[in-house]
Design brief:
The chain is built from 36 helices and ten strands. By secondary structure, the chain is mainly α. A four-stranded antiparallel β-sheet has the order 3-4-2-5. Strands 8-9-7-10 form a four-stranded antiparallel β-sheet. The chain is elongated. The two termini are 15 Å apart.
Length: 882
C-alpha cells in the first residue's frame, strides 16, 4: 500500500533525512578542508585516469567475440591476415604510364619505411605480373594486341634506336612526306603531339601515352588506376592510431609530385583510413558542438540558479565527478572504446541534474525565509533521498546493457551506471562544501514565487485540463504505436561517415566499379578440389558475378598465348633491343632542326588530306607556330629549357613503355608454384585451407542489396565471412542487444521502483510518461525519416535515464507536497535540467559528421518528448490521483 502524504512528511524527519542533514551540516563545518581534500583527490584521480585509461579505437572489439559470425571472421583473419591490410592507396593517372610510374616510385618509398608499414603490396610491380601479365588477356585480345604491335614495329624500332626529339620528328616527317603512309590514319598521333607542343610552350604538364597511341593495353586491369595495399603499424592507445602512417603517405605523395599538377591523383581508403577520418570528423564536430553549447549551458545555468557562485560550485562539482568517473573507468575497464568514450556526454547530461535538484531546493528554502546555514542541510534532507532513488534507477538502466553481446555499449553502461553514484556522492559532499566556501547572496539566490501572470496560469493547465491532456496523450499514443514499428536501423556504417571525406568518397567510387571486389565475401574450404566444386555452385547463384579460387589465377589457354608471344618476339623483339641497359631519352644538337623540317613539310600533308587527318595536321601546325615563336624570343638557356619540356611531354613515357614490352615478351608457362608467395597467401593458408572469393553482381551501396547477396551466398556457404556479412550481422547484433537491454531495464527498473516507492500506482506514474515519450520519439524518427544507427543508438540510454530520473523525482516530490507541483522549484529543476541537456547535445546537429548530427537530432527529439511528458502528462496524472 502506498503511504499517505502525512506519512511521507513524517518520514522526512526520519533517519534518512536526519543522516543527510547531519552529513551536510558536518560538511559545512569543515567546508575548506572538504574542498581541499576533494581537489587533491581529484588531482590524484586525474593523474591516475591520464596514465591508466587508454582509448581502444579498434571497432572489432565493439561486439562479443563469441558471436558465430565473429568467430568465422576471426578465423578468416587468422588464416589470411594479408586480406585486410588496413590502408589502400588509389592512384589515378591521366594515362597508364603515369599511374604505373607513380605506383612504382611510391612503393619504393614506402618499402623503405618498415617502421611504419609491415607490408607493402602492389601486384603490378611484382616481377611475375610484369613478365606474365599478357597471359591474363583473352586469346583474341592478345592476338589483336600482337597485330597492332606488329603494325607499329617499324615506328617502335626506329624510336628504340633513336629515342630523341630528332628521332620522333624524323619519323613523323617521313610519315607525312611518303606515299607509303597514305593508308594510315595519323590523326591520333598528330593530335597528341600537338597537345604536347602546346603544353611545352605554356610550361604546363603533359605526358603522351605511348601505350594508348600504339594500342598495347595491359593485362586486363584498369590501366589508369593503380593500387597499393598497406599494413600500417597502428597504435590503438592513440585517438588516431594510423595517423603517422597516413601523414607519411600524404607527405610522400607531395614529395614525389603525385598530384594534379603532374597528371595524377592520390587517394586513401581502407578500414584504417575510414576509421581515421571518422574519428577526426567526429572530434572536429564535437569541438564545434561543445563551443556552441558552452555559452548556452552557462546562460541556462545562470538563469536557473541566478547566482554566479552557485553556477561555479555546480560546474566544479560536475568536473570533479567526471574525473572521478574516468578514474573508475580506468580501474574497472582500463580503456574507452568508440562508444564508451561518450560516458562524459552522458555524465554531464545527467550529473548536472543532481546539482540542480539540490541548488533549486536550496533556493526554494531561501525564498521561504530559511537561514542560509540551515537551508543547505535541510535541502539535502528534503531531496537527498529522491536523488538516491534517481541514481539507483538510472544506474540500473545503464547496468542492463552489460550482459548484452554489444561489448561497446556494455562498457558504456558499466561506466555511466557507476557515474550516477559518483554524481550523487559529490552532489551531497563537494557541492555543499563549495556553496559554503563560496556563499551566494541570499537576496539574489532565493527562489521567488510567481504571481498570477499568464505564465503562472499556463502552469495550472495540467491540473485544470487533465482530462483533455489524457485524451490527447491517448491519441498521440495510438498514432505513435502505428508509426513506431516502421522505425528502422541503418546497418551500413558508411552512412555514419562524412560522404565528402576522401576515404568514403573513394570507397564508394570503387564500390561502383564491377572489376574491383570492394565488398566481396570469403568462403573457406579444406582443399583445392572442394574449393573448385563449391566455387562452381556459388558462381551459379543469380546475385554472384564471380567465385574465384587460387586455380583461377593460373592463365588458361597458355599454349596458344605463348605461341602468339613467341611469334611477336620474333618480329618485335629485335626492334626493341637497345643494348644491355634500359632505354634512355637522348638530347641531340639537331633536335630543333628535325622539328623545323617537319613543320615545313606538314602543310603539304594537310592540304592533300581530309577529315580528321587534316584537322589534326592543322592543329599541329598552329602548335608548331607557337613553338617557333617561343624559340625566336628565347636565348640558348631558354631553348634548352623549352626542348627539355617538349622532350618530357612527348617522350617521357617511352622508355617505360619499351621496357615493359620487352619484359612482357619474356613470358613463361605459369603453374601454381610459379605464383608469387604474397599472392598465394591470400588464397591458400599455411595449413592448407583454401579461400573462395565471391564477387557480388549488384552494387552493394545499400543495406537491402547487401542482405540479398549475403542471404543468397549463405544458402550454399553458411559460414561465409567478409565485409557484407559483418555489416549485416553487426547491425542485427546491435538491434538485438538494445532490445535485450531495454527489456532488462524495464523489468529491473519496474521492480526497483516498486520496492523504493512502495506503491504500484506511483510506479505507473513514473513509467506511463516515460513509455509515451519513447513512443513519440520513435514516431518522430519515422516522420523525420531518420534511421537509428551505430552512432545515435547510444542516445537511447540517456533518454531512458533522463525519463526515469525526472519521473522518480517529480512523483516523489509530488506526493510529499500539496498544491501545484509545477509551481515548485522541483519542476524548475527538471525544466532547466532538460534545457541544459538539450543545449549540451542539440548542438551536435551542427556537426558535419552524419553520425553525430543524427545523435544530436535523436537526443533533442527524445529529451523534448521526455520533458513534455514529465511536465504536462505527469502533473495531470498526479492531479487525478489526488
Amino acid at each position: 500500500m502506498g503511504q499517505t502524504p502525512a506519512e511521507l512528511e513524517n518520514d522526512r524527519a526520519g533517519r534518512g533525512a536526519r543522516v543527510l542533514r547531519a552529513w551536510v551540516g558536518a560538511v559545512q563545518r569543515r567546508a575548506p578542508w572538504v574542498v581541499a581534500a576533494a581537489l587533491l583527490a581529484t588531482a590524484g584521480l586525474a593523474w591516475y585516469a591520464a596514465t591508466h585509461l587508454s582509448v581502444d579505437t579498434d571497432t572489432e572489439h565493439m561486439l562479443s567475440a563469441q558471436l558465430p559470425w565473429r568467430q568465422a571472421q576471426m578465423r578468416l583473419d587468422r588464416l589470411f591476415p594479408r586480406l585486410d591490410t588496413g590502408l589502400v592507396v588509389v592512384i589515378d593517372g591521366e594515362n597508364e604510364e603515369l599511374a604505373a610510374d607513380a605506383q612504382q616510385r611510391l612503393v619504393a618509398a614506402l618499402e623503405a619505411r618498415p617502421q611504419l608499414f609491415s607490408e607493402v603490396y602492389a601486384a603490378e610491380t611484382d616481377p611475375f605480373f610484369r613478365r606474365n601479365g599478357l597471359l591474363y588477356l583473352d586469346t583474341d585480345a592478345l592476338q589483336k594486341l600482337a597485330d597492332d604491335l606488329n603494325q607499329a614495329q617499324p615506328f617502335l624500332g626506329a624510336l628504340a634506336q633513336d629515342p630523341s626529339l630528332h628521332g620522333l620528328f624524323t619519323l613523323l616527317d617521313r610519315a607525312v612526306t611518303t606515299t607509303q603512309s597514305e593508308g594510315f590514319a595519323l590523326a591520333p598521333a598528330l593530335e597528341r603531339v600537338a597537345a604536347g607542343v602546346d603544353a611545352a610552350v605554356a610550361d604546363r604538364f603533359y605526358a603522351l601515352s605511348w601505350q594508348n597511341l600504339i594500342g598495347s593495353g595491359g593485362a586486363g586491369l584498369e590501366p589508369k588506376r593503380r593500387f597499393i595495399e598497406l599494413r600500417p603499424h597502428r597504435d590503438y592507445g592513440r585517438l588516431l592510431p594510423a595517423a603517422a602512417a597516413i601523414d607519411t603517405i600524404r607527405a610522400l605523395g607531395r614529395q614525389l609530385h603525385i598530384d594534379a599538377a603532374h597528371g595524377l591523383r592520390l587517394r586513401l581508403t581502407g578500414s584504417a583510413a575510414l576509421e581515421h577520418e571518422e574519428i577526426q570528423s567526429a572530434f572536429e564536430g564535437g569541438v564545434i558542438a561543445f563551443s556552441a553549447a558552452l555559452a548556452m549551458v552557462a546562460a541556462l545555468l545562470f538563469l536557473a540558479l541566478r547566482s554566479v557562485r552557485l553556477v561555479v560550485s555546480a560546474v566544479l562539482t560536475l568536473g570533479c565527478g567526471l574525473i572521478a568517473t574516468a578514474a573508475f573507468a580506468a580501474a574497472a575497464v582500463g580503456h574507452l572504446n568508440l562508444i564508451s568514450i561518450a560516458f562524459g556526454v552522458l555524465y554531464i547530461g545527467l550529473g548536472i541534474d543532481y546539482a540542480l535538484y539540490l541548488c533549486m531546493r536550496y533556493r526554494e528554502l531561501l525564498g521561504e525565509g530559511t537561514a542560509a546555514d540551515i537551508a543547505l542541510p535541510r535541502a539535502a534532507g528534503d531531496v537527498g533521498g529522491f536523488m538516491a532513488v534517481c541514481a539507483a534507477t538510472t544506474s540500473l538502466g545503464f547496468f542492463a546493457f552489460i550482459p548484452t553481446p554489444f561489448t561497446g555499449i556494455g562498457e558504456l553502461g558499466l561506466i555511466s551506471g557507476a557515474g550516477m553514484f559518483v554524481s550523487l556522492f559529490v552532489s551531497l559532499t563537494l557541492l555543499p562544501a563549495l556553496i559554503h566556501v563560496l556563499p551566494p547572496d541570499p537576496a539574489r539566490a532565493r527562489l521567488r514565487r510567481g504571481g498570477a501572470g499568464l505564465g503562472w496560469r499556463v502552469l495550472d493547465w495540467p491540473y485544470r485540463h487533465a482530462r483533455a491532456i489524457w485524451i490527447g496523450a491517448g491519441l498521440l499514443a495510438v498514432g505513435a504505436l502505428f508509426l513506431a514499428p516502421q522505425a528502422r536501423f541503418d546497418k551500413d556504417p558508411l552512412d555514419l561517415r562524412d560522404p565528402n571525406s576522401e576515404s568514403v568518397s573513394t570507397f564508394r567510387d570503387l564500390l561502383r566499379d564491377p572489376n574491383i571486389p570492394t565488398l566481396a565475401v570469403s568462403v573457406l574450404t579444406d582443399g583445392a578440389a572442394q574449393a573448385r566444386e563449391l566455387a562452381t555452385k556459388l558462381a551459379r547463384l543469380p546475385l554472384v558475378a564471380h567465385a574465384l579460387t587460387l586455380s583461377d589465377l593460373i592463365p588458361d589457354d597458355q599454349d596458344a598465348k605463348l605461341a602468339i608471344l613467341d611469334q611477336l618476339n620474333l618480329t618485335l623483339g629485335p626492334a626493341l633491343a637497345t643494348g644491355s641497359g634500359p632505354l634512355t631519352i637522348a638530347a641531340r644538337a639537331d633536335d630543333y632542326a628535325a622539328i623545323d623540317q617537319f613543320a615545313q613539310d606538314l602543310p603539304a600533308y594537310a592540304a592533300r588530306r581530309s577529315g580528321a587527318d587534316r584537322e589534326a595536321a592543322r592543329r599541329l601546325q598552329t602548335a608548331l607556330q607557337g613553338l617557333a615563336e617561343a624559340w625566336s624570343k628565347g636565348d640558348a638557356a631558354a631553348h634548352d629549357a623549352l626542348l627539355a619540356r617538349l622532350r618530357q611531354a612527348l617522350l617521357g613515357t617511352l622508355p617505360q613503355h619499351i621496357d615493359a614490352l620487352r619484359e612482357a615478351l619474356a613470358a613463361q608457362p605459369v603453374t601454381e608454384k610459379d605464383l608469387p608467395p604474397a599472392l598465394v597467401e591470400r588464397w591458400k593458408s599455411a595449413d592448407g585451407t583454401y579461400r573462395i572469393e565471391v564477387w557480388p553482381k549488384e552494387v552493394l551501396d545499400n543495406t537491402a542489396a547487401m542482405e540479398r547477396f549475403v542471404a543468397q551466398v549463405r544458402t550454399v556457404a553458411p559460414d561465409a565471412a567478409g565485409g557484407p556479412v559483418g555489416y549485416i550481422e553487426s547491425g542485427q547484433a546491435v538491434v538485438h542487444a538494445f532490445r535485450l537491454a531495454f527489456l532488462y531495464s524495464f523489468v529491473a527498473i519496474t521492480l526497483l521502483l516498486i520496492v523504493l516507492l512502495r506503491s504500484f500506482a506511483d510506479t505507473l506514474l513514473v513509467l506511463i510518461p516515460l513509455a509515451l515519450a519513447i513512443l513519440l520519439t520513435l514516431a518522430g524518427m519515422v516522420l523525420l525519416r531518420v534511421p537509428f544507427n551505430f552512432a545515435n543508438v547510444i542516445a537511447l540510454p540517456l533518454i531512458l535515464g533522463v525519463g526515469v530520473d525526472y519521473g522518480v523525482y517529480l512523483v516523489q516530490h509530488g506526493r510529499a507536497r500539496k498544491g501545484n507541483l509545477l509551481h515548485t522549484g522541483t519542476a524548475r529543476a527538471v525544466l532547466f535540467g532538460a534545457l541544459i541537456t538539450v543545449a549540451n547535445f542539440g548542438n551536435l546537429m551542427l556537426a558535419r559528421h552524419p553520425g553525430m548530427a543524427s545523435m544530436g537530432l535523436l537526443l533533442t527529439l527524445g529529451l523534448t518528448m521526455t520533458l513534455l511528458c514529465a511536465l504536462v502528462l505527469l502533473p495531470s496524472l498526479l492531479a487525478r490521483r489526488r
